[in-house]
Amino acid sequence: MQDNLSSSIVVENEQKGVLRIIFSNLPSNSMPIDLLQELAMTIENLGEDENVQAIILQSGGERTFCSGADFNQLLQIEDEKSGKIFFNGFAKVINACRKSPKIIIGRVQGKSVGGGVGLAAATDYCFATQFASIKLSELNIGIIPAVIEPAVERKIGLSAFSKLTFNPNDFFSAEWAKENGLFMEVFEDIKSMDEAVENLANRLTTYNPEALKELKKILWKNTEHWDELLTERAEISGRLVLSEFTKRTLGEK
Questions:
Q1: 170-195 pLDDT, tens digit each
Q2: How does DSSP classify residue 108?
Q3: Which of 36, 39, 148, 212 is least surrounded by CB atoms within 10 angstroms?
Q4: Phi/psi at 32 (nearest 5 deg)?
Q5: Nearest CA among 46, 140, 61, 59 for reference residue 97
Q6: H/E segment holding residue 58
Q7: Rounded to whole angstroms, how far apart are CA atoms 21 and 40?
Q8: How far apart are CA 19 and CA 56, in angstroms?
Q9: Mapping DSSP to helix (H, G, I), strand (E, B) and coil, where does residue 27 land?
Q10: Torsion 236-238-242-246 (CA) sign
Q11: Measured in whole angstroms, how far is the alpha carbon of residue 9 from the centre of its chain?
């Protein structure tokens, strides 16, 4: 697979003890494999920095938060091994968030599709604007949201996850996502959301770092098997993406 040269990861110093990760692949912030791998590595590295207490995870631009997997790269997948490697990129990001000892704050300014919903679900406390509707569109292209399911279901429950999955053409509102536990707070605009993000980040820097580490462990209880589970799920998606249905559908996009 060719690297997408337009994609990037930027780390900014927000304030003492807080760093901001901005992933970008404009215009829709789709996720090629190189961006997924770099994002996972960045989260892991910041997790090891004793000077960091909280991480803000966001995407570039003011519209789409993340449109999920890069369709161009999905079309390039020619065997199950390559398929597993690609979808394991999402698994690595989710597990990096899960295993990071730092509190990760999500900042979702716009729509999320597929893997983008998984990224939001992998954060510890997620803010959004009223424009941050969500959709799991995987069934439309012949695959399923296998890798992100554990993270999404952990936040919204099996029933809500099923509703999203079986309605792959429909966007569900940010308020719906809040009512079901994906978003903690929803704001009218980016400015008011950013104020709330910064306020929480400020408060986190005043708390006992050891207490936050122990809290993080509790928040992610019963997920210790996810390294193996998400790898298994990546195999499923890697196999399904090779189906005639998926190849034909992606070719028509």
A1: 999 999 999 999 999 999 999 999 99
A2: E
A3: 212
A4: -80, 165
A5: 46
A6: strand 54-59
A7: 11
A8: 6
A9: coil
A10: positive
A11: 14
Tokens of 26: 């404009």
List alpha helices for 30-79, DSSP H: 33-47, 71-76
In the DSSP assignment, the letter for residue 31 is B
Cα distance between residue 92 and residue 79, in whole Å: 20
Identify the bridge partners of residue 58 per DSSP, sorted by sequence position: 22, 107
**Identity of the amino acid at 162:** S
Parallel, antiparallel or unpaired: strands 125-129 and 103-108 = parallel
Q: 183-237: per-residue pLDDT in tens?
A: 999 999 999 999 999 999 999 999 999 999 999 999 999 999 999 999 999 999 9
Q: What is the pLDDT of residue 1?
A: 37
Instruction: Check whether the bond before 27 is cis (ω within 30° of 0).
Output: yes
- Residue 178 CA: distances (Å) to CA of 9, 175, 190: 27, 5, 16
- Given a cut of 70, whether residue 106 has pLDDT beyond it is yes
Per-residue pLDDT of 147-158, as tens digits, reads 999 999 999 999
CA torsion, ordered 46, 47, 51, 53, to nearest 10 deg: 110
Per this entry, what is the length of the chain?
253
State the distance between the two ends of the chain, measured CA to CA, in whole angstroms: 19
The pTM is what? 0.95
Identify the pLDDT of residue 37.
Answer: 97
What letter does residue 133 receive in the DSSP assignment? -
Q: Which residues pair with 59 in a beta bridge?
A: 23
Sign of CA dihedral 145, 123, 73, 132: positive
